[in-house]
Records
---
Amino acid sequence: MTGSITSQPAPKGSEQPAERPAAQLSPTTPPQEAVLPPRAPEAPAPGTLVGSHYDHCFGCGPQHPAGLRMTVVAGEGLDVTAEFTVGAGHQGGPGLAHGGLLTTAMDETLGSLNWLLHAAAVTGRLETDFVRPVPVDSVLHIRARITGVHGRKIYSAAEGRIGGPDGPVAIRAQALFIQVKLEHFTQHGRPEDIKKALDDPDLFKRARAFEVNP
Ligand SMILES: CCCCCCCCCCCCCCCC(=O)SCCNC(=O)CCNC(=O)[C@H](O)C(C)(C)COP(=O)(O)OP(=O)(O)OC[C@H]1O[C@@H](n2cnc3c(N)ncnc32)[C@H](O)[C@@H]1OP(=O)(O)O
């Protein structure tokens, strides 16, 4: 049996106000005062891999057993490119990518941009528009760029295309990342994972660098 959603009259007192408030900018749109800073001296050279920030990250960790294992390449400016191959294990509808996983791929790519500023930052807000379905076996070609920085807030945007790097857009995303100090991880993360992470000499080097230059 198929059902349909019937419209009910709104309860008394819940009517829309006669005048709508003026359209507001999305919190992922940089304010006028935002700037585009230069790449950090430590930023990966254009054309080179940005590198995983944590071996067990679901998005980029090479040791994650079921993660997306994404690799991201630094662009010439405050931009990166990445590819995500949609496998059979990534399905939502039959033969189609799950939207949440596509969002994860966008989040991971957008998060990689912060390395170009040598900033440790976490996603505060992520908005996605799913423009067309993405079939299993497609490669999602993602291009992402920083659109502005204001204080601790890093604004960015990305598109994911299918059928080639210049193919039609399948997904768009805008994000607001917030710079955090090392304590964000050490205070909130599961202690055994924090200990393991701090024991990793490479990660520790990066984390220390953030601590002295947050
Ligand atoms: C030992 C191990 C070392 C590891 C070294 C590795 C380092 C590199 C790891 C990178 C990892 C990336 C991984 C992939 C990307 C994720 O998946 S990150 C995981 C998902 N995100 C999270 O878990 C974040 C959870 N949220 C939080 O912890 C806190 O809300 C935040 C985001 C840190 C902000 O809290 P806060 O520091 O107290 O700052 P707060 O004053 O609330 O906000 C600052 C500003 O941002 C604005 N803001 C904050 N949230 C929002 C929002 N949702 N919407 C709009 N505006 C907002 C505020 O309004 C405020 O604006 P102003 O007043 O300054 O104008």
Note: Strands lie at 71-74, 79-85, 121-130, 139-150, 153-161, 169-179.
---
Amino acid sequence: MASDLSPAPSVAKPIDVAVGILVKPNGEVLMAQRPEGKPYAGYWEFPGGKVEAGEPILSALIREFKEEIGVEIDPNFAEAWCGCAYVYPHAHVHLHFYLCRAWQGEPQSLEGQQLAWQGETLNVQPLLPATIPLLEWMWQAR
Ligand SMILES: Nc1nc2c([nH]c(=O)n2[C@H]2C[C@H](O)[C@@H](COP(=O)(O)OP(=O)(O)OP(=O)(O)O)O2)c(=O)[nH]1
Ligand SMILES: [Mg+2]
């Protein structure tokens, strides 16, 4: 019988991910399409990305928003909302979602990604699997 019980690399160490939901006064939220070359390219998500070693999650959120869409998030208006874990074939992620109602700058596509403001009836597909239940829950919780 095999004696190596060490977990597969994908489940050994969850990766923290800071995710931001920009919410406009009319309730629309900003979604982005993952660019070519990344896992799940073409899938829609909320902007954000991996937290670096030792980096506070809110700092990672602010950094990722500058890098990906050129938007300056005001930390005083970024509300830690909820988290979830998901095991993908490429990684085990721990997602930290923030609701952001104030920011500076107009979202720009700095990584060649498509951006779209979305209301409750989505017109973008497909979504990252881990994001689908969060989005449904968000509309219910409003
Ligand atoms: N940004 C974001 N990531 C999500 C969402 N849902 C979800 O499962 N993820 C997963 C997909 C990825 O495995 C991980 C995010 O990592 P990423 O590939 O975007 O990382 P990153 O922006 O730092 O980019 P890079 O290091 O690959 O250049 O989290 C979501 O709504 N937004
Ligand atoms: Mg990203």
Note: The CA atoms of residues 105 and 142 lie 25 Å apart.
